[in-house]
Every structure is written in structure tokens, then in C-alpha cells.
Fold this sequence. Notes:
Blueprint: H1 46-52, H2 68-74, H3 98-102, H4 107-110, H5 124-133, H6 139-157, E1 162-164, H7 171-188, H8 190-199, E2 208-210, E3 215-216, H9 219-225, E4 230-233, E5 244-245, E6 265-266, E7 271-273, E8 280-282, H10 285-288, E9 289-290, E10 295-296, E11 309-313, E12 327-333, H11 336-341, H12 343-354, E13 365-371, E14 375-379, E15 386-390, H13 401-404, E16 406-407, H14 412-422, H15 446-457, E17 462-468, H16 492-495, H17 503-506, H18 513-523, E18 526-532, H19 540-543, H20 545-548, E19 554-556, H21 569-588, E20 592-601, E21 605-611, E22 615-618, E23 621-627, E24 633-639, E25 648-658, E26 664-676, H22 679-684, H23 688-705, H24 708-729, E27 738-740, H25 746-754, H26 767-779, H27 782-789, E28 792-795, E29 822-826, E30 830-835, H28 841-848, H29 862-870, H30 879-885, E31 899-900, E32 934-937, E33 940-943, H31 945-951, H32 957-969, H33 985-998, E34 1006-1011, H34 1018-1021, H35 1035-1046
Helix pairs in contact: 12-21, 15-18, 23-24, 23-25, 23-26, 24-25, 24-35, 28-33
Amino acid sequence: MNRFPPPQMMYPNAFPASPQSPSSTMVTNSGKYPSSPPPPPPPVNNNIQQQQYGNPQQLPQHSMMMNHQQQQQQQPPPQPPPVSSLPHFPQQQYPSSISQMNQNIPPQQQQQQPPPLHNHSANTTQQHHHLHQHHGMDQLTQKMGSMVVNQGWNQMFNRLEAVNLLAEKDIYTKAVQQKRQQQQQQQLNSQQQQQQRRDDLSCDKDVMRCTMHKIPETASLLQKSRLPLGILLHPFKDDPNIPVIQDSVIVRCRSCRTYINPYVRLLDQRRWQCNLCHRINEVPEEFIYDYQSRRMIDIMTRPELNHGSIEFVASVEYMVRPPQPAIYLFVFECTSSAVQLGYIRYLASALLASIDQIPGDSRTLIGFIAFDSKLHFFNLNDDRPVHMIMPDIHDVFLPHADCLLVKFHSCRDKIEYFLRETLPNFPCNSNDDDPNKIVADHQSALGPALQAAFRLISPTGGRITLIQTSLPSAGNLSDGCVLQNREDPNQRTINSNQSNQALTPLLNPATDFFKKLALECSEHQVTVDLFNLSPSFSDLATVAAIAKYSGGSIKYYGGSGTGAGTMNPLAINSMLLRFEEDMKHYLTRSIGFEAVMRLRSTRGINIHTFHGNFFVRSTDLIALPNVNPDSAYGIQLSISEDLRDFNQICFQAALLYTNSTGERRIRVHTIALPVVSDLIDIMDSADHDAITSLLTKMAVDRSCQASIQDAREALINANIDLISAFRLIHTPPYPGLFISYHTRLLPLYTLALLKNTAFRLGISTRIDERVYAMEQMKSMPLKYIMLYIYPHLYPLHHQFDPKQSSPMPLQLSFANIDRNGVYLLDTYDHLFIYICKSVHPQFLSDVFNVTQWSQIPDEGDQQQLQQQQQSQAAFTTPPSIAMMTRPPQSSLNNNTNHNHAQMNGFLPNQMMTMNNNNGMDDPPSTSTDTSSNDIVAGGAIQNNDQHSSTANNNVDDDNNLTLATKQKQKRSPCPLITLPFLNNETSEHIHEFIEKLLDDRPFKPSFHILREDSRLRYSFLQYMYDDRNESAFSYYEFLQHLQQNLEK
């Protein structure tokens, strides 16, 4: 059987290169929209909670003063508490520091273990005396301490709980409901929240998260559990609460160079013991003495000892060279396909809108290079932009290299003029005979353009933003920068056949040109970020290597999300709107330059494989020329030595980078996990989200190295092995498919992965879309990966208030779709509103501003779309979209003069503007009709004056005018959401809920409105992962398949 090999044998070489509401209560339908009652929320399995968590309130207070043996004899076993008296559970089910473990351990046993770092109830003198008293503990005391710590962890987790998957219905909805209830109870108990904040010394679990909350003490024990061991890391996550330390001294271990953290052992005021290598180090005098106030500092108040995440301002010793300035170079395609797409004007609009928020200081530089079959350079130092053309792309050199990058602040006016007057109208016309003809060709010299950009930026380093719209087709053939179309649309289904291995070469680069160039970029602190807008095949598997190995990011817009083979004008317009909004976020997000990241761990834990976009310099060090808050990494670990001598294992990630203002900083994240010897404890501490994410990254590597079929089999066998391991320690009371409570969602997620674009077989799938899905799974943060794997399905037809509660997500089955319902499907990249046929007319009026279901414009109704485009009187563009996306109109004039240069090897070019009505290159029209109430759905706009007047025929004209005016003043807070924002409670709540989903999301999704009879309804139905389709199991059939393999 095909399985993921153990870490000792897998990948012998290193890689070469929306917040949920705290309330889970849904407001039921109050009868406003008569329909069938909503299904009641699934009941919580209280037996599991009561058995998993004891009630500390039932323990007598004096029992904590007894020794452990007396407590076991005198204290009766706690009875399961009633549901109303269940204790408030913290969100983090394991203690994050040794001091938290000690709270549930008798005092006599606490003296047998290594002393805690923090004791907030004791003064500093007593604590230092206590620390000094236990210095030099013998080996027996250490073993006893380890045993007591494990007992404290067992009090938190109790014993293993089992779930019969075949008997559980709506297991995902129940899991979400239980999580929300725990969060709600936690928020109601403010005292517990304060205690958790004091005791939670590990970094945020969204920053660093392990696949299991307890570490096996041996490699054989890890092998028995059949669980993968790894760390998911999001090191540059935006967090304003991270303390910044500007002291002149940074305390580190002299042996392993670990940064001092909350889990070190303080021996006295002058010495501390490293928690990774256990070396004893001296405390610098500057760490405990304030020279300004001439007073001693209480060492326990230092931020380094109270926060799991910390950031230091680095000193000169951490600098190989002076900090580099922020340099931004934009390399964009201007071929005929780019002109037809019309994205350049949206790029100019995004740059103008974000020009004040681009990170940098007075040294920041910016430049622009365009390419078709030639290279186009722009000199922005003169009074007017100078456009220079290089037709010879076989011998690339830089004309006026000093003028191609200009200082952002000193040349601000010239840059704005370029963005307003030159870029929106580029490429321009130079043919006097045909003023409407645009000078552009179909060939793309992407490779030579990247070579020129690298030469320009390599002396200093910086960021290259590459925008691609077609397959590279011009350049030196011997270099490998010219690519051929490797995808035959007629062979997509055949290549997706399970028995066909022809798909694997298409997932790997055709040439190594872009990889080699990426490695050179990484060596010179240059990162390339790729934005791919090609609606046709662009060989993303090959071109993406330029971003993958240079530490960049990849964004692909070619997939329409509707399953259509080609993109219609409305889909293109939606894509350009997304591109503009994403570009605004991209330009203004935080950025770190010339970064390196190292992961340190306790002796006995080895790093096996890195996952993400970077270049590996050594076994534990990765190079990141640029680091951004939207990228995350996975690290697969292995146990090389027995860990019996340790009571905890620590991991520390250190990110050294230069911020946009030229300041060198070090961001440090630390977590600590206990070591256990019981297989039950290991199974009970599993994290199914983290495990799913790590298995996904491993499956992506397997797909590229072997085949997608091998990766699918390995994912299935991972579930079979996990259930088999569980059977070794749990005897089921009756026949069924039992699994650990903390891994109960793993089979559901595995089935969703098998139907995901990255791993699905038997369905026609574009190669670029499959490659992009794999890249997403390798580099996205954990919470977005889980949404990408298992989307959220929300019912919108039930009344709810997003400020108090959010709709409960449903399991992805069409059995949960009600005929009179309206549903929102969030797949991370796409948002679908699916409208069933029997929706109440009042809901249609409140949300869509129509009276009949058939009046809702549907994206799949091409005939209706054509009629809407032909009828200018009845359909118009909404101001909320046009105002947000239309480039400045001052740039659209035909009298702009540009300087041009004529030099050796260059052709002069008189840059002229295009006509305002030049087809698809123009953004949507800004014409509005203030006397009508417009509706936009899927890009279609419908006038509803007649309906409004009919519905309000008993109200006088003045009131109608006032209501219409108020309604027109409402603007959607989400400019990409083409849903009318009406002046009623239901519409406002739905928009608030959508805004809440998208609030903290870095890149915005496309938006689609589909009726039940839509021709594109498959784009919604394909995400019903729990149902059977023509090439995959349903969820119940998948569970039966697992059970049959277990019985073989």
C-alpha cells in the first residue's frame, strides 16, 4: 500500500532551493419570511465533554494541601456535572508553561520538579531563593518532576475519547458548535480569561502550532501513533501586540544561540539555564540594572520572560552591510493579450490609490519595466517620462541605469504624473494613419525582462512585481525562457485518469531557466512576486519557480470560479476588480527585506523537510529575501534521540529582517510542549487542523515527485493507519468505525482534499488551476488552508444579527439545502450566493430588490446578459463599483506630450493616448441614474422603478422620493460584492456578515450569484464534498471504504 514514508526515509535531500463570533446561537426565523422551519442546531455530546473535562469546583479546597497518595485515597471520583454547570473551558486545551501545570499538582510534588519560571503570587526574593534552592537536582528528581508534569497534563486532557464516525451525523457542524460554545463560556468568565493571559507564555497558536500538543518520548512511540510530527509557522503575521525591545543587549545562549524566553530556568539573579541545550549562562548586567534610574530591575518583569513572541531591535553585530532601502520594481506585460484584457489601467489606479501607504522612508526607490516582444524602460527623472524601447532582447543591457530607479519621495510629482498620464494609456499609438490602432504585439519576452530587472536591482536587493498575461514566447531558445503550450484541452480528462501518468510532467517545470534565475535573485536579496492574469494556458508550473525559490508569492486569476472554459466580459471585469483590490493590499502590506529564519529545538528533535516558498541555506536556516504577513511555512520534524530525560520540548523560531524604514529587527517566537510516554496521551493531544495541513503539503510533494494517484492513496492510507493505531489502545464496545475525538474531522477533510482541484481525478481540470491550488496549500496560513480545503456553507434565509452571532456553517451536502433557502458558500477564492426556487418573495424584495425569483440576474444566463448589455436605458453601472475602480479621468486626454529618447539600440516612440471608448481596455462606465433603484448581481444591473412604484403605490410621491434618496445613499462596504445594499435590516445584516468574513482576508474572492436553475450551478454543486459525484465517494461511502480496508 502506498503511504507517506516515515521522516527518516522521506525526502533524503532538503528542499533545493474570518474571525468567528463568540456566540453560537442562531436567531430562529421569526416568521418574517414564512417557510419551513430551520433545522435545529445539532446537540452537543455532553457525555464527551463531561468525561473529557473534570469539574474542579467539586474538589475540596484542602485536597490541594495533601500529598498525591492521600488525595487519591480520600477524594471520591468527581461526578459528571450537569450541562448548566459545566466549567468554562479555555480555548487552548493544554497549559502553555510549567507554572500552569503546577496549579493542579500538590505542593509536595511540585518540589520534585524543575521550578517554574513565573510565580506571580510570590515576591522576587522568595522566588529567586526557591530557584536557587533547587539548583543541582539529581537525575531521580528530574524523572519524578517529569512524571508529575505529565500527571498535570493528564488532568487537563483526562483519558482518550472515541467517536464512531458511522453513527455521527453532521460531525462538522457539531464540532463548530462545540468550539463556539467553548469560546462563549470563556468570554463570560473574565477571571479565567485574565488567568489564561497570565499563564499563556507560548506564542499565539496562529503563529506557531504543532501537529500534537504532547511530544512522544521516543521515535518508536511516534511511529506507533501514526501521526505526523511537524510545526506550522506564520512568523511575520501582523500582530500589534508584540513587544519591541530596544535595549543595547540581547541575551542569548552562548552555546546554541537561543534567545532568552519564558521557558528558561533562572538559577539566580546572575545565571540562567537554556531550555534547549541546558547550558548555564550568565545574565548581563544591562539586563538587570537600569543605568538611567540607577536601580536594579526585577528580572521577572522583563518582557522577554513574559511573552512567547518578542521583537528585538538588532544591533550592528547583526548586520553584514548597512540596511538596504526599500526598492520596488514593477515588471508588467504589454502584449496584445494584455491590451485586450485592459489590466494596465487598473494597475495604475491601484498605485495611485495606495501611493501614500506604500512602506518605505526617504531612501525608497521605484521603477517600471514593460515587455512585449521588446523591452520598454521608463526614465522618470526628467520633467516628463522618457520612454525607451530595446528591440534586441538577446543581448540585454540597461540604458541610463541611474535613471530607471528614482527616489519615491523626491520624485513624487513625476511618479504621479506617470501613473496618471502615461501608464493608463500604455501602450500608445505611433501610427498617424490609424489613430485607433494600438502598438502591441502578441509575443512575450518575459525571460529577458526578468533578466533586465535582476541586473537593475541586484546591487542592492528589493522586490520585483511581475504581472503576466500570456505564455512566454520570445527570447533566447537556448536559455529555456521560451515555453511551449504543453496542455491539450482535449486531453485534460484523459490526463486526469487514475491510470495515466502523463499528468506528473505537467506539474513540474518544463525548463530550469526560472529556477536558476530565482536562485540568483535569492543570493542578491531579490524577491519576485508573480501576478498571473492569463485566461489561457501560461505554464504556471514553470514560471512560478521564479517566485517559489526567491521567497515570493503567487497570485493566479485565470480561474473564473464558474467552471467555464473561457472567461466572458463580465468575468474579466470581476477579475480586474479583484486584481485592483488585491494590488492595493499588496502595495500597502508590511514587508521585511534581506531576511533569514532559523528554527531551533531541544536536542533530539531534527528538522526533516521545509514546505513553502524560500531557499534552504542549511539544515535549519532558510533564506527569505522578502518576507510578508500573508505567507506561512510548514516544517516536518523527526525524533532522532530518546527524550526520556526531558519533561518538555521547546521550539523557537527567529526571523532576522530589515523593515521598510531600514531598521534591522529580530522577531522571536517560542512554544513549549510536554514529553509523554503514553500512546493514549499522544492520540488525545492530536490537532486535526494542523495534521491535515501538514499531510496536504506532503501530498503536494508526492504529486510532483511520483503522481497524483500516489498522493491520493497516501492520504487515504494515513487515515487507515491512524484508525488502526487507535484500535490498538481502544476496544470498541460495538461494531463501528471508531477514531480519536481530536482527530474525528480528519476523514472528512481527507475526502475534501481528494475532491479539491489540486488532487481530484476523473474531472477535466486546467493544469494552471491545479498547480495554483497546490501552491496555495504550500504557502497559505493555517486558517485559510482549512477554509480552502473545506469551504463554509452558511444559510442566509434565517434571521441573524452578525454583531451577536453568525450563521452556523453547514456540512457540505445537498441534503442540507432547503428548497426555500438562500446560501452563501465561502471557498476562500470565491463567494457564491445560491438561491433556491421557493424563496419567499419578501426575502427577495429585501435582499435582491425584486419580487419574483426569475427576476434575479443570473451569471449563467448568457442570453439575459446580452439583453442587459444592449438595453442601456434599463441597465446601468452602480456608482459603488465604478467610483471605486475607475482610473482618474484627468489621464484620459489626447493632448499629452511625452519626451522620447533615441540612442544606439533604441527606437524612438511618440507616446499617445488611446480613445476613451477603446473596447475592453476601459473600466466600466460611471453613468448613473439617480431616479432608479439599481440592482447588481453577477455583473448584471437591473432597473426596478416599476417594482418600487408598484410596491409603494399607497405612499405619496414625496415619501417615495425620500426613501429612494436614502436608498441611493447606502453604499456597500465591500466594493467587490455585486449585491444591492438596501435600506432594511435583512440586507444590512447580510452585508455586515459578508464584510465580517472578508475583513481580515488579505486577498479578496470573486463573487457569484447563481439561481437554482443556473447553467453554472455546477460551480456551486462541485463543493458539496459530502455527496457522491461521478468520480468520487460520498462521505458515508468513504467511511465504508476505510472500514473495508481495515478489515482486510
